[in-house]
């Protein structure tokens, strides 16, 4: 799981969501090895910022490694920075599933 935490000023939230959902996320999801993307908004009641977690599911670690080394990854990151980089705070991380239980 490739996880991106984004903090967005409330004054930019609507514009960021519009661009992020319609432009950025489909471009990332179209990359080889990506399976699904889910986005969550933290429910804390922040006065000035909204916090989001974007969870990208990839086929495996190799798919993630290929993506982060690709030219397209660099291009997509730069496109993000050009659009909202100065307005948002971003933390990127990878998670490895260690347990799952279904009902």
Descriptive keywords:
103 residues; alpha+beta; Alpha-Beta Plaits; four-stranded antiparallel sheet; 3 helices
Structure description:
It is a single chain. The chain has one domain: 2-Layer Sandwich (Alpha-Beta Plaits). It contains three helices and four strands, in the order E-H-E-E-H-H-E. It has helices spanning 10-29, 61-69, 71-85, and strands at 2-9, 34-41, 49-58, 89-94. The chain has a four-stranded antiparallel β-sheet. The longest helix is centred in the N-terminal third of the chain and has 20 residues, at 10-29. It is globular. It starts with a strand and ends in a 9-residue tail after the last strand.
Q: What's a concise summary of this model?
A:
By secondary structure, this protein is of the alpha+beta class. 43% of the residues lie in helices and 31% in strands. A hairpin with a 7-residue loop joins strand 2 and strand 3.
């Amino acid at each position: 799981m490739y996880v991106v935490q984004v903090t967005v000023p409330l004054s930019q939230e609507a514009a960021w969501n519009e661009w992020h959902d319609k432009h950025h996320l489909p471009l990332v999801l179209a990359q080889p090895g990506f399976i699904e993307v889910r986005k969550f908004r933290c429910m804390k009641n922040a006065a000035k910022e909204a916090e989001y977690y974007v969870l990208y599911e990839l086929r495996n670690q190799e798919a993630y490694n290929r993506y982060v080394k690709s030219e397209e990854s660099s291009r997509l990151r730069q496109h993000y920075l050009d659009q909202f980089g100065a307005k948002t705070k971003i933390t990127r991380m990878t998670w490895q599933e260690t347990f799952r239980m279904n009902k």
